[in-house]
Amino acid sequence: xKLSVIGCGYLGAVHAASMAQLGHExxxxxxxxxxxxLLSAGRAPFFEPGLDDLLASLQDSGRLRFTTDISxxxxxxxxxxxxxxxxxxxxxxxxxxxxxxxxxxxxPYLSPGDVVVGKSTVPVGTAERLAHRIQEVALGAHLxxxxxxxxxxxxxxxxxxxxxxxxxxxxxxxxERATAxxxxxxxxxxxxxxxxxxxxxxxAELVKVAANAFLATKISFIxxxxxxxxxxxxxxxxxADAIGHDARIGRRFLNAGVGFGGGCLPKDIRxxxxxxxxxxxxxxxxFLKEVDAINxxxxxxxxxxxxxxxxxxxxxxxxxxLGLAFKPDSDDVRDSPAVDVAIxxxxxxxxxxxxxxxxxxxxxxxxxxxxxxxDVSEALAxxxxxxxxxxxREYRELDPVAVGExxxxxxxxxxxxxxxxxxxxxxxxxxxxxxxx
Length: 437
Ligand code: UDX
Description:
Bound molecules: uridine-5'-diphosphate-xylopyranose
Number of domains: 2
Number of helices: 18
Helix content: 40-55%
Number of strands: 14
Largest sheet: 8 strands, mixed
């Protein structure tokens, strides 16, 4: 099939490449010429494991091309909208400028029978509104909403082998056409028995925000337990292991630490709250405000632990911050707890040396005032406190004896509870975890 993908960020670039990998002929469109130049050269404009290899392997296939010219979507049957829906400045609600812009840009080039497929995370009610707009202008074109559940760091695998496919369609013939086209797009996945749930628009939109709200709640639940553990001397990691053995609860997403960040969970729970309030159902998900508050308190907790470890006097003290990305295997620093901790410590006068295997360029663009060291040994040199805030494998595998030779004072704050506390203590370190004695 001929497909187009509008927006070539973390979501769209991966989707375009993955659809070409499935055998479709894909054109990816983005307004950023630098991004398009890199993608056209077979290179990912951001760090995502496996994406560079996939793009390179598709270079000579003739099935994948990228352009800034939206008119090149003509001839494609399905048009995936994968642009961002960031948080509006100073508000909780989502900013739909890019989604609305993408739809308006598409409209003049749609043909009867084409299907526009929304993948962006949007407030419930958006698809209905956009479907009317498409009907108004592009007679005979259809709309489906097909949320994406990919995780950064696993984006290619999550796109090629999703654990479920969901699409929301209109009632009647329009919905039938959209379902048939998407059935062809995802044919190989459906043949492999990937569960498919076809819904109305509102359900499909809600599935996505509900999934992210649930995940965020699970993380904040365990972080709330960490706060109680801190007041009682209990160990939240053992607590998580113990409750996680109950299959109804499950151990995944029960890692207490500095909390969640990234381009999805934080802004999605805020946008969901804002939308529920608009619908007069604010109280139904008022708990998400608490989820957000617990999450943000964990960042403050890490900062407080560092300040305590420095005897309450952070000014001019050397602090090594290990990690900037919001999670390992990503260079994404959007709403990153790690960056937040580094910035706050610098604001308190500490001499912060921050490092990350991938995210220094993205962090530097947003926060040029921070001091970055690409070499972890240089970041650690002379540190009076080390704080680990992104659990990259290279940090989890640090040798406490060797690191002990580099620092001025052997104090480590493990903001992700990912180190072997006994090993670090045995090497003479003061080890401080999150919600652990
Ligand atoms: C998330 C959803 O998982 C994905 O389905 C959706 O499509 C987009 O949002 P992503 O933002 O890539 O994906 O990251 P995820 O792996 O969910 O992690 C989110 C944050 O939670 C990270 O900052 C991570 O460090 C944190 N986290 C995760 C915890 O603090 N504890 C955990 O136990 C798990």
